[in-house]
Design goal:
Elements (H helix, E strand, L loop, with lengths): L1 E3 L1 H5 L6 E13 L3 E5 L7 E4 L7 H4 L7 E10 L7 E12 L15 H5 L9 H23 L3 E2 L5 E2 L11 E2 L26 E3 L4 H11 L1 E9 L12 E10 L3 H22 L1 H16 L11 H10 L3 E4 H9 L2 H4 L15 H12 L3 E4 L21 E6 L3 E8 L4 H10 L8 H5 L8 E7 H9 L20
The structure holds 4-amino-1,4-dioxobutan-2-aminium adenosine-5'-monophosphate (4AD) and magnesium ion.
Subcellular location: Cytoplasm
Protein name: Asparagine--tRNA ligase
EC number: 6.1.1.22
Length: 476
Amino acid sequence: MSKSSVKDILSLDPKGQEVELSAWVRTFRSNRFIALSDGSTINTIQAVVDFENHDEALLRKINTGAAITVKGKLIESQGKGQTAEIQVSDVLINGESDPEKYPLQPKKHSMEFLREKAHLRFRTNTFGAIFRVRHALSFAIHNYFNEKGFFNIHSPIITGSDAEGAGEMFRVTTLDLNNVPKTEDGKVDFSEDFFESETNLTVSGQLEAELAALALRKVYTFGPTFRAENSNTSRHLAEFWMIEPEVAFANLTDNMDLVEDFLQYLVDYALKNCKDDLEFLAQREAEEEKSLPQNERRPMGLIERLEFVQSNKFQRITYTEAIDILRNSKPYKKKKFKFPVEWGTDLQSEHERFLVEKHFEKPVIITDYPASFKAFYMRLNDDNKTVAAMDVLFPGVGEITGGSQREERLDVLLRRCKEMGIEEEHVWWYIETRKFGTCEHAGFGLGFERLVMFVTGMTNIRDVIPFPRTPGHCEF
Ligand code: 4AD
Ligand code: MG
């Protein structure tokens, strides 16, 4: 007798052995066939009850969503598409589910509807598959870095610094908001606050990762980051997870080599370890696309896209080259772009999409952006105009990672801080590393949800994180 998961039972050779399974009812057909699921795999197992042997009142409680335990013999399945089924001798109802009231009916629900039911959506096939893939990718990330000799650094969640200098932080305070203490000159008196200074939720663990890399050589962070940017898009969250490797004695080329190897490893890992879930998601996507006009359908299926990225080199171009390509493009000439394409302005997602999806048709790494709109810590190039930055753009997702070689020269860093209005006393600890044993170093940040979007083919970032936080949405 074994009490195991659906996945365990499906891996057994069915020889009439006794099994016990606790799981949730997906469907119950003809008072005879129960499809049971427990999230251990995309697959359900069929349990067959002989209604003559069971009390009718009990059978009436076997409804979609109910938790039940069945005992019986595992035999070869008569039905097609499945290898084994349980010939039930005993049924126990763990938790009933009123079919009139259960919000998830055994039919297809829209993603919008399921977002409103975040407490139950784990129970659908689609979200089961997404969160199993999300887990696998998280595991693969730690695996990759461990194999390569990186150390995982837990950077703080509450911090006094604004790593990106973009001022998009959530405040952390214990002050009474109805009675905020003020200093004589009318400013908030943080000396009465918990930390006795102004604090925020972190927007990035990079600065701390740099401190660690300048001693442990190869490190990475993997944690939640928070941004109060009011962008209600399908690619932005207020709380998202970021992976930030940082490597000492490494330059921009090393950084590009690392990001490409890392992303290809992760895609390869998912292809090898999430086969059933990816096949399910691929089929789901193909179904969805049938209702789209031809020109809005993706050029490749999900599995094909993953295999393509896993086995093709990424295109590497500079920002200046990207601007040239865009200005010579058809949409530019036909005035189809909404935003201007001019050297010195940031690329918008319409430009990035053109480069990745239309021009190169593969992942693109864009380097050497103008210093004017990039962060203070990026290394200034010899032209004094651009910095050693790199963004990786993926089809369907846009920017998946952002990174750079860091400014390791004390004088240049101090100048950049001044130009960008960053007060030295706020980052004195960061600046100090440039005084003692400074060296070339580089790193990047991977937006975990953007990776999960790419691997699962989901088009809205709210569907790849269990509890999405977006402007106006944070109930539980
Ligand atoms: O490009 P970003 O802002 O870079 C940094 O934070 C650097 N400190 C990283 C580093 O060099 N260590 O963010 C990195 C990535 C983006 O490329 C994107 O994938 C993701 O984080 N990202 C978001 N994902 C979801 N919602 C948001 N609001 C995001 N903002 C950035
Ligand atoms: Mg960025």
